[in-house]
Amino acid sequence: MLKHTPKSARTRQFIIEKTADLFNTKGYAGTSMSDLTAATGLTKGSIYGNFENKESVAVAVFAYNLNKVEQAVKRYAAGAESSRAVLMAYVAAYRNFIGGEFPGGGCPVLNTATEADDTSPRLRELAAAAIGRWQQQLEAVVEKGKAAGEFRADCDAVQTALSVIALIEGGVMIGKLTNSQQHLDRVLLTVEWLIDNLQRP
């Protein structure tokens, strides 16, 4: 962070970065204030001097981790010259999910969605909004491919977007649970098949 950034902003960013993997690994409910102080080396008062409560830290961390995922996908999509290539960028990004450039603990959307129902309505809303934006982005790519004559005119953009998301997130869950990138890769082959079947014959 730049030196001219106000100290309070630097401290907030420090707390977010130091606790990002912690929240993404242990979850909101499983992360205690003592975990936060241990990870940051700051006192409870220092943390609460920058965030209203633990949920406020978790909300900021979710945004930080989500941005890391979105930036990773953008790097894979950079230079894509077709709608198919843009969709395949998601496959490429998630092929490096385990031990790759994703936040420690895995996909923040999946992790937050599976926990937040019972622990934090605010985090649940953020996870749902992230899925909604992802869906809209994929739908737009499919519609662009249809308009360009790259994809079949009868492609259902909504069904395609939801199917891609469900397959990827389901594959991530299985891969994380079994600690097997191979299991995730097998699911991603199905995503590739789905994308290839959007194309005109």
Automatic annotation (TrEMBL):
<feature type="DNA-binding region" description="H-T-H motif">
    <location>
        <begin position="32"/>
        <end position="51"/>
    </location>
</feature>
<protein>
    <submittedName>
        <fullName>TetR/AcrR family transcriptional regulator</fullName>
    </submittedName>
</protein>
<dbReference type="InterPro" id="IPR009057">
    <property type="entry name" value="Homeodomain-like_sf"/>
</dbReference>
<dbReference type="Pfam" id="PF16925">
    <property type="entry name" value="TetR_C_13"/>
</dbReference>
<dbReference type="InterPro" id="IPR036271">
    <property type="entry name" value="Tet_transcr_reg_TetR-rel_C_sf"/>
</dbReference>
<feature type="domain" description="HTH tetR-type">
    <location>
        <begin position="9"/>
        <end position="69"/>
    </location>
</feature>
<dbReference type="InterPro" id="IPR011075">
    <property type="entry name" value="TetR_C"/>
</dbReference>
<keyword id="KW-0238">DNA-binding</keyword>
<dbReference type="Pfam" id="PF00440">
    <property type="entry name" value="TetR_N"/>
</dbReference>
<keyword id="KW-0804">Transcription</keyword>
<dbReference type="InterPro" id="IPR001647">
    <property type="entry name" value="HTH_TetR"/>
</dbReference>
<dbReference type="GO" id="GO:0003677">
    <property type="term" value="F:DNA binding"/>
</dbReference>
<keyword id="KW-0805">Transcription regulation</keyword>
